[in-house]
């Protein structure tokens, strides 16, 4: 199982760096990767149906409760099959569609990366692992949307998508962490047991809202939907795979995943019903206002995602059964429609519906694919869509209080979606031919387009099989109440049939009305200033400007400013902290014991320090600096450190000599009198000095004997045959340190030497 | 004496910080040297100070006596003095070059050097 997830990442690395070796001949072999994964997961179907959930355990970061465990139940299996199945089609299709592209290596790299991340996402059993994969899908989506990176709009679309889904992802992380804290575990299987704990928690509403933020951004729910139509700038196979069949359903997956533990009346149901309802209607209306086929598909996808959220919100067994079925149905017909659009785009050079007509004559197989997809979308027999639409109506009719309202909403959405489906699957193929495609459509293009349609019909004709393998196990996984209804080809004359007939009739009328797209409708769409996307873009700009200003204030480029901020905060934070631990419990006899000569030295030192600070003459300042050094030298001498005194004396002399030598080459003091800054710096410096003073006294209060000095005292002569212990430490016990120190000095010396030799020939004006 | 030395260290740190915050190149160097000296003195002080008992083993003896100054901080400071000199020398030459080759007299004027060329 681990191999199944990781092989995609390994392949992605391999592809991405393959460079020029990644040519057409190689790319024909790539579809075998998702295909073999598909076979692997298909073989898992019987054991999962028998056992419910299979766990695969691998350790990752055990101490933090993060594991690489995978959980294969009907929900993750459904998604895994979709990811690898649609993946196979898309990879196959890409070998023909992307054949002449120069950057095939990167394309397949990103696509494999996405596939692996998506698989990881749906299989992850640990919340943290899930989040990691969740973000990786966002990132690979970013790369794929911006694949044509020379197109500025593609770049912007990629960034929008990343900001929206990535931002939502962060909120999701908070939700997951809170759930983990409350349940005391990050393992999903264990969290499954703590549903009541979560629902009774005070944080329950917060968790829900954060979770919804992640779900709604990822699954393009109103008002975060706008990144999805923009993301259609990606190559068509990518749109098919990520932005219709799989990635955008990650949010739905998450809702379904947490349905057993988080669902409940009130916030959960109402939010999902309202947001899902608005989204499905909004998307369906907008779809009909577009003329670009991919835009229509983007909005119908938004609408379909809305339906899924809506169904989750209903939460009845019928609704969940409809959800499971609809995820499959939608993936099948929508990928078919996307691939079909890609074929038309490739052969005619346009995706504009106003310019595409009568192509059925030239590409009958693609036309057939389009009809099958439209059939499934319309929910007509024998396609699988028939069953999902029935269940959808059954679920909305089953709502206790608002069945009429919700069914009406579902009806309108379905009518509009049916018309939109016909616009894609039927309209470009009928009427007078607009183009005369030169060559035949490659089998690598039409086969993946047609296959999902055929599958949908096959599945639609086997309702009992679908019920056994998908709807009932799916419902059982998500809820405790079993699904009572059944799938059948003919359910008799009832409300459901009536609704279906109404949908079909009204849909055909709408299609007929909208089948000649008018430019006026397109204009209407352009007034997007008040749309959520436009508003959020403006807000983002405002935010960016705000931070720009903030950064200009904080990072203004003045070194002195940075230093003072650092010192200021140091004083503030250490001062605040130290006041709690001050003991003022000093050994007065020890600290006040002063001899006369020491006191005189101190006095000289204070005067020298003050002079070196306030003196207007540079030479005087350097001279008093030398005096300070000599006083330190004396202090070392008084307090039993003859070696230090010697070193200090030498170095101090050298420093002063060097300084005086260079003084000629250094600029005179600036005479800038800014009293305000003067005082501010004085206060800062004074504060820091005081802090050091207090700190020193406190430290002296602590016992210092660590035993290390005793070791040196006893062994200096016995082990190292030296009587000057300080010297022995430097050249023997810590000899390597001294060697490194010499190296540092040598490097500094080299730096000094080369700086002196440096002549800037091309000095800036 | 400890209290005087502690005050001294505080004063030297304050003077060093104050000078580093000035705009003149020379003051920056003086400030750096003062800070270096202050740090050495600080380590010396908190290592514990002892009068007249240098850590040198006497004639005919094999170990240090009962009371002796801690040799470890002394070894540390010895290193620090030398390294500090390397740093100060480099800083001096660097700033001298800044002035000679680029005509920098005011540290604030270094602000825009990074962005001008872009």
Q: How would you summarize this macromolecular structure in one to three sentences?
A:
The complex is a heterodimer of chains A (765) and B (118). With 765 residues, chain A is mostly helical.
Fold and architecture overview:
The complex is a heterodimer of chains A (765) and B (118). With 765 residues, chain A is an all-alpha fold. Helices cover 73% and strands 2% of the residues of chain A. Among the domains of chain A are: 226 residues, no CATH class; 36 residues; 166 residues, no CATH class; 46 residues. The longest helix of chain A is centred in the N-terminal third of the chain and has 32 residues. Helix content of chain B is 65%, strand content 0%. Chain B contains four helices and no strands. Chain B is elongated.
Shape designation of chain B: elongated
Residues in helices of chain B, as a percent range:
55-70%
Task: Give a short account of the largest sheet of chain A.
Answer: 2 strands, antiparallel
What fold name stands as the CATH topology of chain B?
Helix Hairpins
* Structural classification of chain A: mainly alpha
State which percent range the strand residues of chain B make up.
under 5%
Question: What is the 3D shape of chain A?
Answer: elongated
pLDDT < 50 runs, ≥5 residues of chain A: none
Number of strands of chain A: 4
Percent helix of chain A: over 70%
Strand content of chain A: under 5%
Task: Please tell me the overall pLDDT of chain B.
Answer: 85
Structural class of chain B, by secondary structure, is mainly alpha
Q: Biggest β-sheet of chain B, characterized?
A: none
Which protein chains are joined by the largest interface, and how many residues does each one contribute?
Answer: A-B, 102 and 95 residues
Number of strands of chain B: 0
């Amino acid at each position: 199982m681990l191999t199944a997830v990781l092989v995609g990442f390994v392949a992605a690395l391999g592809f991405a760096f393959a460079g020029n070796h990644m040519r057409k001949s190689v790319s024909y072999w790539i579809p075998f990767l998702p295909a073999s994964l598909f076979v692997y997961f298909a073989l898992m179907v019987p054991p999962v149906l028998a056992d419910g959930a299979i766990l695969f355990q691998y350790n990752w970061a055990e101490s933090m409760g993060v594991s690489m465990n995978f959980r294969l139940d009907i929900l993750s299996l459904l998604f895994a099959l979709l990811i690898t199945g649609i993946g196979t089609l898309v990879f196959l299709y890409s070998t023909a569609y992307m054949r002449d592209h120069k950057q095939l290596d990167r394309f397949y790299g990103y696509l494999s990366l996405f596939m692996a991340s998506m698989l990881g996402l749906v299989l992850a059993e640990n919340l943290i692992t899930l989040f990691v994969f969740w973000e990786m899908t966002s990132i690979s989506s970013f790369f794929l949307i911006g694949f044509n990176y020379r197109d500025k709009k593609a770049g912007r679309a990629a960034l929008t998508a990343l900001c929206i889904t990535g931002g939502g992802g962060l909120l999701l992380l908070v939700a997951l962490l809170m759930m983990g804290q409350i349940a005391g575990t990050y393992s999903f299987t264990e969290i499954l047991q703590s549903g009541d704990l979560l629902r009774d928690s005070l944080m329950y509403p917060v968790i829900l809202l954060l979770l919804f933020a992640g779900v709604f951004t990822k699954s393009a729910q109103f008002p975060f939907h706008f990144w999805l139509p923009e993301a259609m700038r990606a190559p068509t196979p990518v749109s098919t795979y990520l932005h219709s069949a799989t990635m955008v359903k990650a949010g739905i997956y998450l809702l379904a995943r947490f349905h057993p533990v988080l669902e409940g009346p009130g916030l959960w149901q109402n939010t999902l019903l309202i947001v899902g309802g608005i989204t499905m209607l909004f998307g369906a209306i907008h779809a009909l206002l577009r003329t670009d086929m991919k835009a229509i598909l983007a909005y119908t996808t938004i609408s379909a995602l809305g339906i899924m959220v809506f169904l989750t919100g209903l939460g009845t067994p019928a609704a969940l059964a409809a959800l499971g079925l609809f995820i499959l149905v939608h993936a099948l017909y929508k990928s078919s429609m996307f691939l079909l659009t890609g074929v038309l785009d490739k052969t005619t050079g346009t995706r504009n519906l106003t310019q595409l007509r009568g192509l059925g004559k030239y590409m009958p197989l693609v036309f057939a694919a389009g009809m099958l997809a439209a059939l499934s979308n319309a929910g007509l027999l024998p396609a699988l869509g028939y069953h999902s639409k029935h269940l959808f109506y059954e679920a909305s009719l089953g709502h206790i209080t608002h069945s009429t309202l919700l069914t009406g909403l579902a009806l309108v959405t379905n009518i509009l979606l049916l018309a939109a489906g016909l616009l894609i699957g039927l309209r470009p193929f009928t009427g007078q031919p607009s183009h005369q495609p030169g060559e035949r459509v490659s089998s690598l293009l039409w086969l993946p387009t047609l296959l999902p349609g055929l599958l949908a019909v096959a599945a639609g004709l086997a309702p009992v099989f679908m019920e056994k393998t998908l709807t009932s196990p799916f419902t059982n996984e998500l809820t405790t109440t079993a699904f009572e209804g059944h799938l059948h080809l003919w359910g008799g004359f009832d409300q459901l049939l009536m609704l279906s007939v109404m949908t079909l009739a009204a849909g055909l009328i709408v299609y007929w009305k909208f089948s000649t797209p008018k430019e006026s409708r397109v204009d209407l769409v352009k007034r997007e200033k008040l749309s959520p996307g436009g508003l959020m873009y403006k807000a983002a700009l405002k935010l960016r400007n705000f931070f720009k200003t903030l950064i200009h204030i904080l990072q203004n480029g003045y070194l002195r400013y940075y230093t003072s901020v650092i010192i200021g905060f140091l004083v503030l934070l250490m001062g605040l902290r130290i006041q709690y631990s001050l003991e003022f419990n000093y050994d007065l006899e020890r600290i006040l014991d002063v001899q006369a000569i020491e006191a005189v030295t101190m006095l000289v030192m204070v005067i020298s320090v003050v002079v070196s600070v306030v003196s207007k003459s540079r030479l005087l300042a350097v001279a008093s600096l030398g005096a300070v050094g000599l006083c330190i030298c004396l202090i070392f001498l008084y307090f039993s450190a003859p070696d230090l005194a010697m070193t200090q004396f030498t170095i101090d002399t050298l420093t002063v000599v060097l300084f005086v030598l260079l003084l000629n080459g250094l600029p005179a003091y600036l005479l800038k009198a800014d009293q305000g800054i003067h005082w501010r710096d004085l206060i800062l410096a004074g504060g820091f000095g005081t802090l050091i003073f207090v700190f020193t006294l406190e430290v002296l209060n602590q016992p210092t004997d660590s035993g290390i000095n005793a070791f040196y005292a006893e062994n200096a002569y016995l082990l190292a045959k030296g009587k000057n212990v300080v010297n022995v430490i430097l050249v023997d016990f810590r000899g390597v340190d001294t060697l490194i120190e010499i190296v540092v000095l040598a490097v500094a010396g080299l730096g000094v030497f080369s700086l002196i030799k440096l002549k800037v020939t091309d000095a800036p004006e | 004496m400890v209290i005087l030395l502690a005050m001294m260290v505080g004063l030297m740190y304050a003077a060093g910080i104050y000078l580093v915050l000035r705009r003149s190149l020379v003051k920056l160097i003086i400030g750096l040297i003062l800070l270096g000296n202050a740090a050495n003195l600080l380590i010396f002080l908190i290592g514990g100070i002892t009068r007249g008992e240098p850590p040198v083993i006497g004639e005919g003896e094999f170990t240090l006596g009962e009371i002796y100054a801690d040799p470890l901080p002394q070894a540390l400071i010895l290193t620090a003095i030398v390294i500090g000199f390397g740093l100060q020398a480099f800083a001096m030459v660097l700033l001298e070059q800044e002035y000679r080759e680029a005509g920098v007299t005011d540290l604030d004027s270094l602000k825009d050097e990074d962005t001008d060329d872009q």
